[in-house]
Amino acid sequence: MSFLSQETFEASTPAGVEETTAPGAGAAASSRNNGDFADLLEKLNEKRTTAREDCLRELIAGLRSYTFVDQAIANRESVFSSLVGLLRRSRETEGVLCAEALGMMMLLIGPEEDEIFNLVRAPLEFVITRGQSERMRIEATRALALGSFICNTEEERTLAHLAFFEALFTGESEGGRASEELKAAGVDAWSLLFTVAPRGYNTHESRALLLENFLHLLDASSADLRVAAGEAIALLREHWRQEGLAVHDVSADEEEVVDSIVDRLQDMAREGSKRMSRKDKKAQRASFREICSAVVDGQRPEEVISYRTRSFRLTSWVKMKQVEALRDCLQGGFLTALAQNTVIHDIFDLDPTAFDVPVERSVVAKNSELGRWRTTTRSRNRRSREKAKHHFTEEGEDA
């Protein structure tokens, strides 16, 4: 799988740092992790909701820290089946965690996994359109977009999901009215899939309609939605320039909408609403200066991602939107995945041998997400045991 060329994703020279694992430590860690993961799968069937939520948190932390990745992939059918089953009957917190875990798992299993994607697609779509919890709908939107981006190989399915997310942020979804936070997630989901949209996706009519919708969203009260819409416009303009869209190819309706968008972006790059704080105004100006430069002048965005002594430069909106989706999914585990995840290497055409990482991770760092979770859980369990012991002692004295 190769979504991108290597032209604008550059790496510095390798660091050449060697790291080793103590003899026998890798095998012992692998055996311990196998046992821990088997326990996790069992705990997903717990009757208590709080126990299942704790289990999901540990699963997500273990996937992000790459503690359970091999075990999760080896048992992927069981993992996906359990997560989908929980998602169908979950309430807010558990449902959010299920969707988050599903997104992580789809990133890990990689491309050309249509069978598994079709297993999770319908439940996620149902949550997005029919779910009662706004947080669940937002997380399900992110998971569905990432799954379609990574696992799906059917062009018709990609086109269907582009239309699905467009309906979400235009208010035409089957689920009816969506909050601005959900619309922002919908715009970001649409933008991610647009980076791999089939050629010929946009016609004159659809281009003009998309631009009108994004122009309308630039006046939203949510800063996240305004920025998402602005970045989507920049992504569209970048794509059309690369496709060599000439002036005579632009319809009169399109030209009029583009002029309105340029005026609006320039206003937003200079000032902000009186209702906004000084900090928010500053953030909006910075975001929209970059967006305005891209739309008006064709200037490329630029971001440098550093890992140890290596650095990577992103210089296109395609790459920026793809990395943004990966960061949302991986959060604190992004750099770990950047070094070890072969799916990410394929997406960005990276050489996996350029990363100096240990062959096996034998110890969970105390300050890692999984390490902090385990510390908190152990403390909570210790307090519960002490409370039960104290209660038992008091009953004995009363007798």
TrEMBL record:
Residue ranges, compositional bias (Low complexity): 15-29
Annotated region (Disordered), positions in chain = 1-31, 375-399
Annotated ranges, domain Interferon-related developmental regulator N-terminal: 26-295
User: What's a Pfam family in this record?
Assistant: IFRD
Q: Where is the composition biased (Basic residues)?
A: 375-390
Q: Which domain of life is it from?
A: Eukaryota
Give the protein family.
Belongs to the IFRD family.
Q: What is this protein called?
A: Interferon-related developmental regulator domain-containing protein
Q: Which organism is it from?
A: Nannochloropsis gaditana
